[in-house]
Design a protein that fits this description.
By secondary structure, the chain is α/β, with parallel strands linked by helices. The protein contains 10 helices and 20 strands. It folds into 3 domains: about 70 residues, PUA domain (Archaeosine Trna-guanine Transglycosylase, Chain: A, domain 4); about 110 residues, RNA methyltransferase domain (HRMD) like (Transcription Regulator spoIIAA, 2-Layer Sandwich); about 190 residues, Rossmann fold. Strand 17, helix 9 and strand 18 form a beta-alpha-beta unit.
């Protein structure tokens, strides 16, 4: 893509860019030469007219998302190099050649220096999700780069950006295959099989960011009665069953999700198992479970997607965790999470602390959890640490 405009910053507004933070806010901009459309590549200059970055222009408080801090040509070689660097990082983690896990995140936005882009690998399928117009307009280059890096290991590339692009961009985007066609084969995560629907499911089809935390649930489940709230397609439930749980109950308000849970349980454990599905409201179900469970997982959807509803979200986390503290058996273990980016670790921990105090139970923190290594956090972009979790022991 060719550069269409030059963006000039106000004095001293380059300081965050000198520390390689990838966002430029509208208030930092002095002026623009040219008339860029949303998604165009623009050059960014300091108030002293010195080049500092290249990025995608967009309408909103974040006006430029930086894709390079060096002057370069944004061509196919650029995208090939970016995807290759992301692949090399996953190769170092042992994910690209694992015989026990074949689903993982290849590109994690700012964590891989590609703000606005997510790419997840499900066996022989790559699922691309654009959160910015610039990345969406580059989807064919991204497709070719994935094919270049993976060769014939990838048989299909699916674009699932319709629901994640800016609403006012007017792109009329439709989810579609950019390469190949549907491959309906269960994927493996730590030897456990999952049916994943990237065409109809949430996010890119599965919550890959909980892989390590699911494994930890499995280690704590032996001999316990487990409740998996907001279970979606049953990730934590399957690990609990594999870990030797005495019983596992999965709860989600979506009947479609519960049908997928049942499929996943059957493909791993057949028809004889210790699992029960409930398509019910989480809060209503929690009120009915006095002393039934000694391991509870709370992994709700994001309660806050922007700061305007932060306080309401924190009240929601407090209420949810207080219910769990009231209902869990003595000696029980609670896994509790927040995936809201605007909720900091301190916010979340304080909400859980307050919930524990309300319940009057004695509570100890056993683990503090986050996202796995294939969801890297750019050290210059701490906002990328969105997943927070606590494992607590309840007397």
């Amino acid at each position: 893509m060719e550069v269409t405009a030059q963006v000039f910053l106000k004095p001293k507004k380059e300081e965050s860019l000198l520390r390689f933070h990838p966002w430029i806010f509208s208030g930092a901009i002095k002026g623009i030469i040219g008339n860029p459309n949303e998604g165009d590549v623009v050059e960014v200059y300091t108030s002293n007219n010195e080049f500092i970055a290249l990025g995608h222009y967009q309408v909103g408080s974040i006006t430029v998302r930086v894709i390079s801090f060096e002057p370069t040509i944004i061509d196919q070689d650029f995208w090939n190099d970016k995807v290759q660097r992301a692949y090399d990082a996953r190769q170092a983690l042992g994910l690209t050649s694992s015989t026990t896990t074949n689903c993982y995140r290849l590109i994690h936005g700012e964590g891989d220096n590609l703000p606005g882009l997510i790419v997840d690998i499900y066996g022989e399928t790559a699922v691309v999700q654009s959160h910015s117009v610039g990345m969406y307009l580059s989807r064919q280059n991204i497709t070719e780069a994935i094919k270049h890096v993976y060769g014939n290991q990838i048989k299909a590339i699916y674009d699932k950006s319709e629901g994640t692009l800016p609403f006012k961009a007017g792109l009329n985007a439709k989810d579609e295959y950019l390469f190949g066609s549907s491959i309906d084969t269960p994927v493996l995560e730590n030897r456990i099989k999952f049916n994943v629907s990237w065409e109809e499911g949430q996010k890119t089809g599965f919550f890959l960011d909980q892989r390590d935390n699911r494994e930890l649930v499995g280690k704590y489940s032996k001999g316990r009665d487990v409740l998996n709230m907001f279970c979606y397609t049953g990730g934590f439930s399957l690990y609990a069953l594999a870990g030797g749980a005495n019983s596992v109950d999965s709860v989600d308000s979506s009947q479609k999700a519960m049908n997928m849970v049942d499929r996943n349980v059957e493909v791993n454990f057949g028809t004889e198992h210790k699992h029960t599905s409930y398509a019910e409201d989480a809060f209503e179900y929690l009120r009915t479970i006095d002393g039934k469970y000694d391991l509870i997982i709370l992994d709700p959807p994001a309660f806050a997607k922007h700061t305007k509803v932060l306080n309401k979200a924190l009240l929601g986390y407090r209420r949810l965790n207080a219910l769990a503290f009231h209902k869990i058996k003595p000696g029980g273990i609670l896994f509790t999470f927040s995936c809201s980016q605007v909720v900091t670790k301190e916010h979340f921990r304080n909400s859980v602390f307050t919930a524990a105090a309300i319940s009057g139970r004695k509570v100890r923190i056993l683990h503090q959890l986050t996202q796995p290594a294939d969801h890297p956090i750019n050290i210059y972009h701490p906002e990328g640490e969105y997943l927070k979790g606590l494992v607590v022991y309840v007397e």
